[in-house]
Amino acid sequence: MILDGKAVSEKRLELLKEKIEESGLYPRLATVIVGEDPASKLYVRMKHRTCERVGIGSIGIELPEDASTERVLEAVTRLNNDPDINGILVQLPLPSQVDTTRVINAVAPGKDVDGFHPYNLGRLLAGDPVFAPCTPQGIMTILEEYRIPIQGQRAVVVGRSIDVGRPMAALLLNADATVTICHSKTKKIEDEMRGADILVSAVGRLKFVRPEMVKEGATVIDVGINYDEQGKLCGDVDFEAVRERAGAITPVPGGVGPMTIATLMENTFKAARLSACCNNTVL
Ligand SMILES: Nc1nc(=O)c2c([nH]1)NC[C@@H]1CN(c3ccc(C(=O)N[C@@H](CCC(=O)O)C(=O)O)cc3)C=[N+]21
């Protein structure tokens, strides 16, 4: 079975659009992009377009490639203090001269719709999340939509980044999976992967997941963003070979990517509701 992230994201966005209408709120998202990376610009454009579709206002702050950490912090602080902005997304990666950790830590936790601030990562690890990172939260949504069992299942996450691997493991643990995190130093990684009922690959290597690493009937989630020799967008999974063994599998494109953006919209609506109802006192 192919897990159709595009279709699930469309369904969730329609639902969200109705909820926003009913709420009478007008949530607003601000994006911050530093430099001219074409992929980053494409993603940010997709986010703005989706905002418009569901009734979320959005503004884009664009800073030059050579912007200093202080300059980025200044932009974030201005957005933190702007009562008309509910959500702030600083597009990653930032250029190397910018201190990414300082920038992430500067975003007000109540506006941190990416869920990368240590406060929100801490809440997630404590099993009481407010904003969970969009990509892993979107993966949880697609697993739920297709009624993939999680409780008591063996989940293996390959990759330990702040935006995907670590929060993915925390979300699966919160849903009562038995979770293993693998990474570049893991011994016998293939044996670990073969034990997975749910295998999440966030590695960034073309054809990293081969059929012999996948248990028959497993659910395979492909978070990779890679380009093949012809410049075609591909995930981490050798899709055609692995789909035969897998019970369920996400394609690239049309899998995890659209779910990331749908979840960003849901997080932004949540941020607007939190600021409207209780002045962020839950934080
Ligand atoms: N602060 C921050 N938050 C992010 O959420 C964030 C980020 N920085 N930096 C980059 C990554 C990447 N990312 C994607 C979102 C959607 C698709 C997506 O919708 N992809 C389409 C294909 C798009 C295409 O044609 O390239 C798909 O998979 O079907 C992909 C990647 C969000 N990211």
From TrEMBL:
Pathway: One-carbon metabolism; tetrahydrofolate interconversion. One of its GO terms (molecular function) is methenyltetrahydrofolate cyclohydrolase activity. NADP(+) binds at residues 159-161, 225. Pfam families: THF_DHG_CYH, THF_DHG_CYH_C. Residues 133-273 form the Tetrahydrofolate dehydrogenase/cyclohydrolase NAD(P)-binding domain. Its EC number is 1.5.1.5, 3.5.4.9. Keywords: Amino-acid biosynthesis, Histidine biosynthesis, Hydrolase, Methionine biosynthesis, Multifunctional enzyme, NADP, One-carbon metabolism, Oxidoreductase, Purine biosynthesis. Residues 3-114 form the Tetrahydrofolate dehydrogenase/cyclohydrolase catalytic domain. It comes from the Archaea. GO terms for cellular component: cytosol. The keyword Cell membrane does not apply. It catalyses: (6R)-5,10-methylene-5,6,7,8-tetrahydrofolate + NADP(+) = (6R)-5,10-methenyltetrahydrofolate + NADPH; (6R)-5,10-methenyltetrahydrofolate + H2O = (6R)-10-formyltetrahydrofolate + H(+). One of its GO terms (biological process) is L-histidine biosynthetic process. PROSITE patterns: THF_DHG_CYH_2 (PS00767). Catalyzes the oxidation of 5,10-methylenetetrahydrofolate to 5,10-methenyltetrahydrofolate and then the hydrolysis of 5,10-methenyltetrahydrofolate to 10-formyltetrahydrofolate. Belongs to the tetrahydrofolate dehydrogenase/cyclohydrolase family. Homodimer. NCBIfam families: PRK14178.1 (NF010775), PRK14186.1 (NF010783). This is Bifunctional protein FolD. It comes from Methanoculleus bourgensis (strain ATCC 43281 / DSM 3045 / OCM 15 / MS2) (Methanogenium bourgense). The gene is folD.
